[in-house]
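pasting for the record
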Amino acid sequence: MTMAFPQNYTKFDTVIINHSLVGSGGVTNFDFWLPVSLMSDQAQATMRSDGGDVRFTLNDDVTQLATDAICNTSGSVIGFRVNVPTLHDDQLNTIKAWYNGTDTLPAASSTYGAFHAYDSDTIGYWPMVEDLSVSSTLQDRTVNQLHGVVAGTFASGDTTSDGIVFDGTQEIVVPNTGGVLDAGSGDLTVEAQIKSTTSGSVYRTIAGTWPDASIKGVLLSYTDAETFNTEVNQTSSIGAIYFRQDTINDGNLKYLCSTYQSSSGQAFGYVNNATGPTHFDNDRTGLDWASGENLVIAGQVYNKSPFIGTIGRMRWDRILRSAAWRTTRYNNESNPQMFVSGCVSGENLQSTGNNRKFPVIGSSIIRKVIL
């Protein structure tokens, strides 16, 4: 595969991914999160403000990687989602970011564009970086374009580095356009990060597709009495449930993952990649967890109260993600400065054909390089 961007790119960062934080056995087609703040001073001073000129390759300098440049409402890039074919857990993982050429942002649907940064099992990914006092739309970055519609009033300060702050009067509704959320009797993985300090004992919705007692759906919720709940419900009967005790409302950022496996009927909930402490579960096979319903984020779902606190980086997948995937995702999201153990700036003084020659390593800050 040859370069799809002009040959005048000569400056680059070698991005080193800490293999010890990749799940056992490695992962494939994984979109890892690279904040711009972790890139070299050279990269940050050189790249365009929207990140549209940045291109990623494998360490062979040739094989280009699909990339999504995540920008805030003002259009400034805050980080990149880069799809890496394989991340190993037992050997060095390195790629390159090129950033001084004249190329422009590729179309999202193009081979290396934003849509292809996410694998085909990702239904929707909402970074939740928009200033919702300016924009009334929450962007889904995948090819499905399941953009959320904002209800309620937000202030500019409600958008933080951790996500969007809800006060209990707002919600975001993601229309189930074309039935994309429907997966029949299928598997499911939902990921998000939350922060809350509310007290009491009511159930609060993180996200769900379960509008009333007669509709099939899925619900992620928590109580102020310290439980995190995953429920996949079936009409007129109890569904697959996983309730667990956690200190959810301590004001610290929590990384949540909920899964449902259709064949076993098991639902699980993970907080910071752990399945404990004590829990109650109930299995039910073959549940249809969308059934034409919209996805509601932070608003009232069925008889649950609205969410109060921060929600960020929500993702829905029509697959049961592996333990290695969950571990890798948690390590990348919760501690990107350790997951990306180094960004080393360099420059090629000459280039020949599609292969750049004579790399010269320039000055950069190497935080920690784990080989």
